[in-house]
Amino acid sequence: MSTSSKHFDAVVVGSGFGGATVALRLTQAGARVAMIERGGWPVRDEQDWDPRSILLDKRYKSESPVAVDLYGFGRPDDYPNETVGGMSVFYGGASLRLRERDFDRWPIDYPDLAPYYDEAENLLGVHGQADGDPVGPPRQQPYPASPIELTFPAERIQNAARSLGHHPFPIPTAINFSDETRPTCVLCATCDGYPCKIEAKNDLPATILKQAQEHGLKIFAQTTAARFERSGARVSGLACIDGTTDTQTTFTADTFVLSAGALHSPAILLRSRFDHPSVGRYLMRHCNVIVACVFPFRTNPGRTFHKQTCITDFYEQQRDETGMAVGVIQDIYTPDPIVMKAHAPWWGRGVIGLTHRYMQNLLCVAEDDPQASNRVELTDRRDRHGLEVPRVTHDYTEADKVRSNVLAQGAKAILQEAGGRFPYRYLIDTFSHAVGSVRMGTDEADCPLDLDCRYRGVNNLYVSDGSFMPTSGGVNPSLTIAANGLRVGSRIVELTE
Ligand SMILES: Cc1cc2nc3c(=O)[nH]c(=O)nc-3n(C[C@H](O)[C@H](O)[C@H](O)COP(=O)(O)OP(=O)(O)OC[C@H]3O[C@@H](n4cnc5c(N)ncnc54)[C@H](O)[C@@H]3O)c2cc1C
Ligand code: SF4
Questions:
Q1: What share of the chain has pLDDT > 70, as a percent?
Q2: CB within 10 Å: which end of the chain, N or C, has fewer?
Q3: How far is the CA of 412 from the centre of ligand 1 (A)?
C-alpha cells in the first residue's frame, strides 16, 4: 500500500454534529483544518426520497459492519449509514435543549452550555416557540424562526393531547421553512430517515459545514481514520485509508479532534491502544418506543409532513425519586408499507397493506441508565480495510423500561383520544440516539474525558461527538452535541492561542 503524509493545524475525524461544530470554530479562528469522513457526499437525487433505495437497499450504508449483541442475544451485523454530515443528513431535525435538572449528574451546568445552545439554534436555523415547552429551560433569545402552521395529522394529535390536559407545543425543528434565499421545505413525508433531495433540511452539509468550508475547512470524504499514532503524551499522527484508491495517508497536526460517533470513536481509540478502562463503556441510546393505532379514516391522505408535536408533560415526573428524566412524546411518520412488510412476519404482511394508510404513530423517547456493561469493544474480525470490527453490547434496565412504559401509556391514551384503536407498540432497535461511550467527567478513573472533552493523559486529543455525554437526558441529542462542540471548539482556541 502506498503512503503519503499531510500536515494541518488541526484534524477532525467525522463530520457529524460534534465534528462540524468544532471545525467551524477552529476555522473561524484562522486554523487550517482537515476533516476526515469515511462517507461520501449526499447525492440529493430522486432515489434519496425513495423508501426502497434508502431504507431497504440502504444506498448510504457503510461497507464496514458493526457486530451487535442486544438484550443478551447476538443479532445480524449492522451497517450504519455514512455520509458527509453524519446522521444529520437522515435526522428528523427535532432540536431540543436538555433541561436544567438533566445537568445534575453532569460536571458542567446548563448555564455553561446555554450560550452555545443559542448559537447552535442560530446556525441550524431552528423554527420554534420560545414559551411553548412547559418544562423547558430558561432562554436568553427567541428562536431564530417561528414554527409553521400545523398540518392536519399533527393538529389531530395536539387536540387530543390538550383534551387530556397535556401541553403540546411545536417541536423546535431545523428545517428551512422560510428563508427564500435557499430551497424551502415542500412538506413531504420522506424526511425523518431520508436525505432531503432539495437541501431544505438544515442538515450539516447545508449549514455548518458549508460555513466552515467558506472559512477554509478541507473535507476528505470517503477517507477512513484507522488509528492514532502516539508519541509520549501527544498524538503525533492519524493513519487514514482513502476508500477509493486504498492508499494510506498519515495526517499530522497540532490538535486532533475525534468525532466519529458514539459507536466508532471508542473503536478508533481502542485500535490506537488508548487504554482508559472506561473507553467504550456507558453506551446509551434512549429507550425508544413507537406506539401505533389504527383509525377509522385515512390519517394522512395528502402524505404531508407532520413531525410537529412534542409533549413534555411527563418529563420531570420521576425526577425526585430517581434523579432522571422520563422523556418526551413526539409525532413520527408511519413507515412506508414496503418497509413495514419487509420487517413483518409473513402472516402480518396482508394486514399492513390494508391498514397502513389508516395508522398514526407516536414516538416515545425515554432516558436510559448509563451502565458500564453496555459497551463498544473490538472483535477479532477484520473489515475490508483490515481494521478490527467493533461489537456493540446493549440491554435496558428495569428502570429504563418503566420510564418508556410511562410514555407509551401516555402516547396510547393520546392516540385513542384522537380516535385510534388497536394500540400496538414496538421497541426501536437501532443506535440512532447512541451517546455516552467516551464520557466526560471529574472522576478520572471512570471518565476518559476531562471537562474540556480532552482525552485524559493525551494533551492534544479531544472527543466531541455524542460519546462525551455523561447521561442521555430525555430529549433527542443533536442540539446538545452541537452546543457542546461549539463549547469544546472555543476551549481549544483559548488553549492554543
Ligand atoms: C433516522 C434518524 C433520525 C434522527 N432524528 C433526530 C432528531 O430529529 N433530532 C435529534 O436531535 N437527533 C436525531 N437523530 C440522532 C442524531 O442524528 C444523532 O444523535 C447525531 O447526528 C449524532 O451526531 P455525532 O456527531 O455524535 O455523530 P454522527 O452523526 O454519527 O457522526 C459521526 C461521523 O463520523 C464518521 N465516521 C465514523 N467512523 C469513521 C472513521 N473511522 N473514519 C472517518 N469517519 C468516520 C461517520 O461516517 C459520521 O459521518 C436521528 C438519527 C437518525 C439515524
Ligand atoms: S419535509 Fe422538507 S426538509 Fe424534510 S425532506 Fe421533505 S422537503 Fe426536505
A1: 100
A2: C
A3: 29
Classify the phi-psi angles of 273: left when phi > 0, otherwise alpha if psi is within -120 to 50, otherwise beta: left
Please tell me the distance from the alpha carbon of residue 78 to that of residue 86, in angstroms, as a whole number: 16
Domain of residue 455, residue span: 3-496
> What is residue 1's predicted lDDT score, i.e. its pLDDT?
56
pTM above 0.90, yes or no: yes
CB 92 within 8 A of CB 478: no
Domain CATH number, residue 231: 3.50.50.60
The DSSP 8-state label assigned to residue 100 in this structure reads G
Q: Per-residue DSSP letters for 22-57?
A: HHHHHHHTT--EEEE-SSB----SGGGG-HIIIIIS
DSSP run (H or E) holding 239: strand 234-242
* 351 confidence band (pLDDT: 50, 70, 90): confident
- In this predicted structure, what is the pLDDT of residue 426? 87
Instruction: Give the pocket of ligand 1 (CB within 6 Å).
Output: 13-19, 36-39, 82, 86-88, 90-94, 192-193, 224-225, 259-262, 264, 268, 432-433, 465-466, 476-479, 481
Query: What single DSSP character describes residue 86?
Result: G
Question: If you count them, how many residues does the chain have?
Answer: 497
Overall domain count for the chain: 1
Contact 279, 270 (CB under 8 A): yes
Distance (Å, whole) CA 174 – CA 244: 33
